[in-house]
Write a structure and sequence with these properties.
alpha+beta; eight-stranded antiparallel sheet; six-stranded mixed sheet; 19 helices; 28 strands
Length: 771
């Protein structure tokens, strides 16, 4: 092979994939995942070499290629030891193919004992595929056996509930009209939501009637399903349900056509198949083009909708078209390789999800469905990867079923309502995958909760619980629930910079929980300007809350209040918060860090550093650290240390559901189930000026008409170039109104020594002085 010109090796940035693995990479699975910055913008193909020798001698080197993208997972694990890797760009094809110079050589080490999660090569990964129909969920040879299951145990298999709740309604419903364009093509939240809700109903009608008709071999059901399918196939793929016009609507119609085409394949004439296959391919191509060519999530991974469309669209659609359209197999390969290599862009080995628990819920809902379809079709088991073995820990610790959704960070469509039941259904999936009884316990807490909420837009417009239950009962055995009484009192999700402190998580009446974050993801995507913020729930009630409501993405509530630091239990500096606008580069730059977290001798502790998050608006900030102590499961102490290059004022913010009582340096929250006393027990600039407001600054009044207001405390310091503020928070049961924590300060040497006493137990907390 001839050698071409030099290889362009761009420097990686915060927004891009990284060059990995390297000597600094902690491998969590074997083989390692290889990623690099593309050498050109399109038509790039590569050859990769991995060697146990730095000079890449032939007998020590494995060569892989051609590789179509800038990421790769080998088809075999490596023996433990030290390795070296490099890549080169391939130009041209056939006899004229040329290779660039080799890239920089990078070293990495494979430790012993890692889980082995190799990805079979493209030539081998579909060797077990059966190409009959159906192939989404059940395979042809499984269908007859499933019919027997339904006959023998309609209730226990979930079939009875599915048929009554999710099939019968579509026998009498009129066909839904194709959504119309927005008036003057100007999108509003209500019109956008109405359009995708209509498309979700089309998906329900086609999928549920098709599955029921095929399982029961019922001509009436099959005819109804076919009518719905051909009707939806007649909609314009480039119209109001196209990906570019309304991506949520597009995702649903593409999936509807895939399920109908697959399950009704034998009921369709060749002309009818073509009438469905053509728009199905067109809609799949729209999504694939956006993901791979425009969004380029293998270059810049932080596109929430594009990543989700892999599982919601490309998996079912490409499986349905697998043996009929060459493009479909290519797109499926891209999706499989993405899941094995780059996923998840939002977390790592701890299983965290930087966008927050609500977008974990939507992401995992489609992902678990897609990965189950992929596993049953091809026997590729992505669930074996470490992320999927641990990600159930994230909602368990940070989105407890016994607390309110007002104690979770990030965008949340159910904000102010009960926790969405779909979180529980996702947790049951991971109970099935891992056998973890804690995850099953989580599901049991939510499965029968608030059935009225099943019709809310954030449920009905996204999933059908009866269908979920039907599929799960077929795919997985029952896992026995285990009460999570032995969870870690401090859980540090290092991958995303979240820390959860808990006392009696499994007991709603006695639970005390604090969640804090300082994340390397900053305010990108569905995250907010909340580095260093905290949320507090105690004795059955949220006390320090996520303020505001979810109206819609990009509403004034979302842009001007919810995303902004002023709505958080955080600080402002001279009235300025963290960058939380719509610039992904600045969003990621507005990051934080958790420097430490531990539990020892009855004390839980974390130290957060959100300095970088403020730099865009407060360039004269030298350093800001927030320390949080949870002492003997009784009270919290928050120490804020802020150093500036010029004098400035700090506004310490706190938000709650109730009007507070302010007195001197204290504030009191009187809830319906719990109480809390807050007290500023030390400030180097002198006493703070406490004030209280209600409402939501900068929000369109029409968006919050009829909604309860929230209350906001601001405690403002005097001007100083350095600030040390210690705040005592004492949550109480309703019958503990007189409880207090005594304290005094010993000011000697290079630190302030704060002593706090609760029922005879004294805790010392050191606060470093500024010099």
């Amino acid at each position: 092979m001839a050698t071409a010109n030099g290889l362009y090796q761009p420097q990686s940035g915060d927004l891009t994939v990284q060059y990995a693995p390297s000597a600094q990479t902690e491998l969590i699975e074997n083989p390692p995942r290889f990623t690099w910055i593309p050498a050109k913008l399109e038509d790039d193909r590569y050859v990769l070499e991995v060697s146990s020798a730095p000079d890449f001698t032939r007998e020590t080197t494995r060569t892989y290629g051609p590789i179509p993208y800038n990421f790769f997972t080998p088809s075999e694990a490596l023996r433990p030891g030290t390795y070296y890797w490099r890549y080169a760009l391939l130009e041209g094809e056939g006899p004229g193919e040329q290779q660039s110079e080799w890239s920089t050589v990078r070293e990495f080490r494979v430790p012993e004992g890692l889980p082995e999660t190799a990805l079979p090569s493209r030539s081998e990964r579909y060797s077990s595929v059966r190409t009959g129909h159906p192939r989404l969920w059940l395979q042809p040879d499984e269908l007859e056996a499933y019919r027997g299951t339904v006959r023998e145990d309609a209730a226990g298999s979930g079939w009875q509930a599915f048929f009554e709740q999710s099939v019968k309604p579509w026998l009498t419903r009129e066909l839904i009209e194709e959504p119309k364009p927005y008036p003057d093509n100007r999108r509003t939240a209500a019109l956008w939501r109405g359009s995708y809700l209509a498309c979700q109903e089309v998906l329900y009608a086609i999928r549920h009637l098709s599955v029921a008709g095929a399982v029961l071999q019922d001509a009436e059901l099959l005819a109804k399903a076919k009518a719905w399918l051909l009707h939806a196939a007649s909609w314009d793929p480039d119209g109001p349900t196209s990906r570019d016009y309304n991506d949520e609507a597009a995702f649903r119609i593409a999936a509807a056509l895939a399920w109908g085409y697959d399950w009704l394949h034998g009921e369709l004439t060749e002309d009818e198949r073509e009438a469905v296959r053509e728009p199905l391919l067109a809609r799949t191509r729209q999504v694939a083009y956006h993901v791979i060519q425009r969004s380029k999530i293998h270059h810049v991974p932080y596109d929430s909708h594009a990543v989700r469309s892999l599982s919601s669209v490309l998996v079912p659609c490409c499986i349905a078209l697998f043996d009929e359209e060459p493009e479909a197999r290519e797109w499926l390969d891209y999706t499989v390789e993405y899941y094995y290599t780059l996923f998840s862009p939002w977390g790592g080995k701890d299983g965290g999800w930087a966008e927050g628990p609500h977008y974990w819920t939507t992401g995992m809902a489609y992902l678990t469905e897609g990965l189950n379809l992929l596993k049953n079709f091809s026997e590729l088991d992505v669930f074996r990867r470490p992320f999927f073995q641990r990600t159930g820990d994230f909602p368990l610790y940070c989105y407890s079923p016994t607390t309110s959704t007002r104690t979770a960070f990030g965008d949340n469509s159910t904000l102010g309502d009960d926790i969405i039941k779909k979180v529980g259904y996702n947790m049951r999936e991971f109970a099935g995958v891992t056998g973890n009884g804690w995850y099953q316990w989580y599901f049991d807490q939510l499965k029968d909760a608030n059935p009225e909420a099943d019709r809310m837009f954030y449920n009905y417009g996204w999933w059908d619980f009866a269908f979920d239950d039907l599929v799960y009962r077929h795919n997985y055995p029952q896992v026995e629930p285990v009460e999570p009484s032995g969870i870690e009192p401090v859980k540090w999700f290092r991958d995303i910079g979240w820390v959860a402190m808990h006392h009696r998580l499994h007991d709603p009446a006695e639970q005390v929980s604090l969640i804090a974050k300082s994340s390397r993801y900053g305010s990108v995507s569905h995250s907010h300007g909340d580095q260093g913020a905290f949320l507090l729930h105690a004795y059955g009630e949220p006390l320090a809350i996520e303020s505001g409501y979810y109206v819609a993405f990009n509403s004034s509530m979302h842009l001007n209040w919810r995303r902004q630091t002023k709505s958080k239990n955080a600080v402002l500096i001279d009235g300025q918060g963290q960058f939380a606008g719509m610039n992904k580069a600045l969003n990621l730059a507005a990051k934080g860090e958790v420097e430490d977290a531990w539990h020892d001798k009855g004390v839980s502790y974390t130290r957060l550093n959100p300095t970088s998050a403020y730099r865009e608006h407060v360039p004269y900030l030298k350093q800001y650290k927030r320390e949080i102590y949870f002492v003997q499961n009784s009270y919290f102490v928050i120490v804020d240390s802020i150093d500036l290059e010029q004098p400035g004022r700090v506004q310490w913010l706190f938000h709650t559901l109730y009007e507070m009582e302010l007195k001197g340096q204290s504030f009191h929250v009187n809830g319906k189930k719990a109480l809390m006393e807050g007290r500023f027990i030390f400030s180097t600039s002198g006493e703070l000026a406490l004030s209280q407001t209600s409402g939501f600054e900068g929000v369109d009044p029409e968006e919050i008409a009829g909604l309860d207001t929230h209350w906001h405390l601001s405690a403002e310091s005097k001007d100083a170039s350095s600030h040390r503020i210690a705040t005592l928070l004492v949550p109480k049961r309703l019958n503990e109104g007189g409880k207090y924590i005594s304290y005094f300060m010993d000011d000697q040497g290079f630190s302030y020594n704060l002593y706090l006493t609760d029922n005879g137990q004294t805790q010392k907390i050191e606060i470093a002085k500024a010099f």
